[in-house]
Amino acid sequence: ATQYTEITFDGTGISALTGTATASLYRITIDKGTDTTSQLWLSHSGTLTFQNTAWLILNNGLFVYNRSDTRTVSSSASTFSIPATAGIKMAATGGTLNLLTSASNSADVLLSGTLSCSAGTLNVGLPANSSGNDIIYASVGTPVIHINGGNLFVNGQIRRNTSSTQGSLFMTLQSGGSVTIGGKSATGTRGKLEIANSGSLTM
Hints:
mainly beta, eleven-stranded parallel sheet, 0% helix
């Protein structure tokens, strides 16, 4: 029978998964430190396949995708969660990381932690779909969107939860990066881009 590897990265500091050989993994779990200063860089440059459609679990620490290929994190019609002490970053020029690809309005990113892009393309939903794949950020804490390079595409909205009027998003858009918000299948009581707390948008 074919066997695959499931890896959990823990500890503190910055680590990297590197190499050039063909690799087949089942799942990666990021559980490093207590915040995003501890990181795992996926910089393996060989052929890499995952045998699980839900191959990434974020508990603690920052997961940095540093490969110049196209990769889907979740293809299921369900939410993908980024906890308060975790984050995900796209960092490879020429690469594309699809956080969600399901053409379902139920496929959203629940953001309590950090979503970042410094190069390449980071997609929340696919442009060809008409679904409202949203980034729904937490009403408390410090959910962060930081774009200082590359392109963030959101098929739906960047918004608060419909069950709360509170929001705590901190969003930074620096020179060299872009954000495109499709606004598809939009929730009518929410804006395409909502930032409810003062002093939290930097451009």
